[in-house]
Model the fold of this input.
Amino acid sequence: MQCRETWAQLLKEANLLVANEPILADLAAKTITRHECLRTALATLIAEQLGNPMITASTLQPLFLEVLENDDVVLAACFDLTATRDRDSACHDLITPFLYYKGYQAIQSYRLASVLWHQGREELALFIQNRVSSIFDVDIHPAAKIGKGILLDHATGVVIGETAVVADNVSIMQSVTLGGTGKEDGDRHPKIGEGVLIGPGCKILGNIEVGRCSKIAAGSVVLKPVPARSLVTGVPAKVVGTVDDCMPSIEMDQQLDS
Done:
């Protein structure tokens, strides 16, 4: 039901786009209005973005269609799309992030690469990771585990490492790193709980847990575990208060005194 409603609204907005700006009719047709569902539209959109002269969009599109037979991947794409519309104050519809927001397109590209990685097609997954990094300036390892309802706002400079885990309904601003602390092997990246808001420029390093519904203030460097519902700031970061918001990632209030 969620995906059917999302797709119906996206089609409606695409038809309105064509009526208001006919020069974009071919773009709308190729990526939305010619399609019967979000699955085929998304496969085409991401293939067109990631294709290059060596591995073309026409080669990638059927591969992505096959991956998107996984209903969980399509459902996550739906939740990511509505999350972007609902949380980004500059966004008031679904078609804008679908067509133009590199954060949304980067996370969907990661989801495709992740399926391939777990199918044992690691080289192909790494090719997609490389293309996403080159095109969108977003570097997400395909082995990372990322839930649904994710907002990558602006997204430039986001890095998410191989063993990172990001729960549902997390909002991540630009220039955020979920990284390791050196050359250690094994499980070495952060675990981000549900509903966390990570402000611009934050660096969360090491195999540490950030508890659910916490808020990490802009520019913080987090090196130690964060309890649930904590307000964290500083270099190195310290807990400076508690969070009253039901879910900071949805409220999107980055004020320290809120």
